[in-house]
Amino acid sequence: MVYETKAVVRRRTLRDALIAAAERAIEKEGLRGMKARELAHTVGCAVGAIYNVFTDLDDLIFAVNALTLEQLEKTLTVAGGDTADPHADAIKALVHLGLAYTDYATANTRRWRVLFDHRLPDGKQVPTWYTANLARLFVYIEEPLRKLAPALSPARRALLARSLFSAVHGIVLVGLEEKLQHLPLPVLREQVTVMVEAMAKGLAQDSK
After folding, report:
1. What pLDDT is attached to residue 205?
2. I need a labelling partner for 27 at 20 to 30 A (CA). Which of 1, 35, 65, 164 fits?
């Protein structure tokens, strides 16, 4: 058994409390809710205590975003193939992924938007551990793409996965934008399905 000092326990407890408070603030107000004084008041600590467990608020946002990525990943379970046609199964899997992403963004819009709205100050780099977590999600797209176009190199396949994600993300982002024309979820799902199927079928045709 590893012995932990009281200071270590207090530090971890404060860290967990701040992450939970930040999650609630983001779910309520998005990035506008990330105010050090209000977070400190919520967890009952001094403002300075925040910076004993996080370098700055950017690092706290990364901690929340990491949990958002975990939630998102749980929704990206690929539908199992049930036909004799691997291309059909791959297309089905890609549509499933696109719709899962759409559903998550619609149900968790504020915390989903923080994944993309968060901007770092000049000179600060995205943590490598966070980049690795983000990259892992693209594997879910790359696998059905491998079945659709096995001749693609891993590098080309990875790039295509990001392009396909960008297309879905763009539809969802515009569809949920209230300043433009907020689309009902059924319409948004239909648009994502049409776009993903068109791209996937074209790729499958080109690979024959």
Report:
1. 74
2. 164
